[in-house]
From TrEMBL:
Residues 211-594 form the DUF4139 domain. InterPro entries: CHP02231 (IPR011935), DUF4139 (IPR037291). Pfam families: DUF4139. Residues 365-417 are annotated as: Disordered. It comes from the Eukaryota. This is DUF4139 domain-containing protein. Residues 375-388 have a biased composition (Low complexity). Residues 365-374, 389-415 have a biased composition (Polar residues).
Length: 658
């Protein structure tokens, strides 16, 4: 068998796909050129692959030349390298390291040469200082010129040496970084893969491309930047959402010039198949035959004191509920317990579900099970009692004639497992359908974390339209807040993450996206409107007692103060009225008038001002007593909004006021 050895670092990474569970799938390509036709099998050993994710393997295929070659086998294992006597791995090298070391040697030689040349000149000048005559130099002026030139040469030499020293220092730093990178690679690139190729019978392969896929550890999470600009102090409706992915990988590989995709899908696909229907049978509850209690010898019973004469049973209401309606798949099955001619048995025996003389039978349909009870008269027709239960087919059969083929627990357990399997498969299909995948518009470079740290890769720059509203909650805070609501009209489904909001380039707020629903609007805060403020006041009054009831009146006022020169539109003021956990206490909303009578919509409370229940976001509105005023225009100055409600409680009942 022919064999070739390849290093993965010498071949490009084609693409990287990062999944939601900190797993990335890397695709590498290996071009193959055969100088001679391949007659037998070829083993390709690929070294310097990273540590794979958990127990995941590799996947090999031929993308070019697949008609001529086929993959007979592929497998992977730890790299086989030789260590020194101390157990350390031998230093690896690279073209970059070799070039850096060559440059370092050249700079060192140049520095040494310049030092030697200046030393030679210095020796010559020293000889002149000792009186040795210089040929051709007889005049003192010539000597002065010579010494001046020597000084200039010395200055120039010092400058050149200083530059060389800095260059040598920089190259030495690059060498250290490259050595560190290679060391990290030697520790991380510890996997070796082997792929066995064989020619297709009757075909000749000259050119081929081998594709290798494997999974490694990597993380990604979305990061958004919302940029809002103002025109004359008013936010522009045109905003820009920058969608980036924060990516980190420490595989030892450098993802250089790769196609990058991020997805919310899971890296491993679960088994999904069509579920099988199970046979369904009608079973008697209990699963095993039980002897008739009437045939057993009578044993003395301990009757609680509350079940003896003169004491009332605390379970009386439970024990008296002997008639119940049960819904079958074709309607209601009325199951009556007839007491005529039957001996009433002690109530204490059925307090905890054990009914002496009244075994329970289950009429189990396709989707539900209907419990039925019958008295001892059902077992003894001569006593005059009767009992019949409507089964799923509509016929009336005595429940005691139900046949039992095997314990009911086996059927119920298998049906339960089948149901769980079906639910899991539906969940998997739903997750596959909901998976969101985004691809970068250009190829990216992401080195291993030991070199490059965490990266923020651009996915898209999305222009959107926004609407702006001022929101105040006077009972909590006196400020009026700018809020921004954006409808995602783009083709990008935003995955859960954090949005950093910038107003005129200044970071003003952060918020989290918790849903990937594309139609859900994005809401964020832009800070405080310093030209507006609110005041909150609450007063409590009382009404005369009536029919043993005491009523308190609560009045709140929220005052909007607008110091803008012009009217302000779209102002929302939120408040709430209390709810009582005690049914004896009632809360009645009086103002805004008519709001208590509606569940949705608005009621007019003034010129350009309406009231409604707060249902934006996750607010429950009327169910939680949350409502708000919506003012289409607030003129400069002050505007007062008022709410009134009554709290009615029995006289003498104390409660904590809101």
């Amino acid at each position: 068998m022919n064999m070739i050895n390849l290093s993965a670092t010498d071949f490009p990474i084609k693409s990287v796909r990062i999944f939601s569970s900190d797993v990335a799938e890397v695709t590498r390509t290996f071009p193959l050129n055969f100088t001679q036709s391949l007659n037998g099998s070829l083993a390709i050993n690929i070294s310097n692959l990273p540590l794979l994710h958990r127990q995941s393997g590799i996947w090999a295929s031929v993308t070019i030349g697949s008609d001529d070659l086929m993959v007979m086998d592929y497998y992977h294992g730890p790299s086989d390298y030789k260590s020194d006597p101390f157990g350390h791995r031998h230093e690896t090298s690279s073209d970059v390291l070799r070039d850096l070391r060559a440059e370092f040697t050249r700079l060192e030689d140049e520095r040494q040469l310049r030092q030697q040349s200046f030393a030679f000149l210095s020796t010559y000048m020293n000889s002149l200082a000792k009186g040795n005559a210089l040929a051709g130099v007889t005049e003192p002026a010539q000597l002065v010129t010579l010494f001046d030139e020597f000084i200039d040469i010395g200055k120039s030499r010092s400058e050149v040496i200083a530059v060389l020293d800095q260059q040598i220092k920089d190259v030495k730093k690059e060498i250290d970084e490259e050595v560190q990178r290679l060391f990290l690679e030697s520790c991380a690139l510890v996997t070796k893969a082997t792929v066995i190729l064989a020619p297709v019978s009757g075909r000749t392969a000259t050119v081929a491309e081998l594709e290798l896929k494997y999974k490694v550890n990597a993380t990604w999470k979305p990061v958004y930047e919302l940029h809002v600009t103002t025109i004359d102090g008013v936010p522009s409706s045109s905003v820009v959402l920058t969608y980036r992915c924060q990516i980190s990988q420490s595989t030892g590989e450098n993802w250089d010039d790769v196609e990058l995709a991020v997805t919310t899908a899971e890296p491993y696909v679960h088994s999904v198949g069509v579920p099988e229907l199970k046979k369904m049978e009608l079973k008697q509850r209990g699963g095993f035959w039980k002897p008739d209690p009437c045939d057993l010898p009578v044993k003395p019973q301990n009757i609680p004191f509350w079940n003896t004469t003169g004491y009332a049973s605390p379970f009386e209401n439970i024990l008296s509920s002997t008639q119940q309606d049960r819904r079958s798949i074709f309607g209601n099955a009325q199951i009556a317990l007839h007491q005529a001619g039957a001996t009433q048995e002690p109530a204490a025996d059925n307090v905890f579900g054990f009914l002496q003389g009244q075994p329970t039978v289950t009429t189990q349909g396709f989707f539900t099970s209907t419990p039925a009870q019958y008295s001892s008269s059902a077992r003894n027709p001569s006593s005059g009692g009767s009992n019949a239960t409507d089964n799923t087919l509509g016929s009336n059969q005595p429940t005691s004639n139900l046949q039992q083929s095997q314990p009911s627990t086996s059927l119920s357990a298998s049906a339960h497992l089948s149901k769980l399997q079906h639910q899991r498969e539906r969940i998997v299909l739903a997750e596959l359908d909901k998976a969101v995948t985004h691809t970068t518009t250009a190829k990216v470079f992401i080195p291993s974390r030991g070199v490059g740290g965490t990266h923020h890769i651009l996915i898209a720059t999305i222009p959107l339209k926004a609407s702006f509203t001022r929101v105040a909650v006077p009972s909590v805070n006196s400020h009026v807040f700018w809020t921004c609501e954006i409808s995602n009209t783009s083709n990008y489904a935003l995955t859960p993450g954090t949005i950093h909001t910038y107003l005129d380039g200044k970071h003003v707020s952060d918020m989290d996206i918790t849903s990937i629903n594309q139609s859900q609007p994005i809401q964020c805060s832009l800070g405080i409107d310093a030209a507006m403020a609110t005041q909150f006041n609450r007063t409590i009054g009382s009404l005369p007692d009536f029919n043993g009831k005491a009523t308190k009146t609560y009045t709140i006022t929220a005052t909007l103060n607008n110091t803008h020169r012009d009217p302000v539109s779209n102002v929302i003021v939120r408040t709430s009225l209390p709810f009582s956990a005690d049914p004896r206490i009632t809360v009645t909303l009086q103002e805004p008038g008519g709001l208590a009578d509606i569940n949705s919509g608005t009621v007019r409370v003034g010129d350009g001002c309406y009231a409604r229940w707060s249902t934006a976001g996750d607010r429950a509105g009327k169910n939680d007593g949350l409502f708000e005023w919506v003012c289409s225009g607030v003129k400069p100055g002050s505007q007062v909004l008022k709410a009134v409600w009554h709290v009615t409680a029995p006289c003498g009942l104390s409660f904590t006021e809101p």
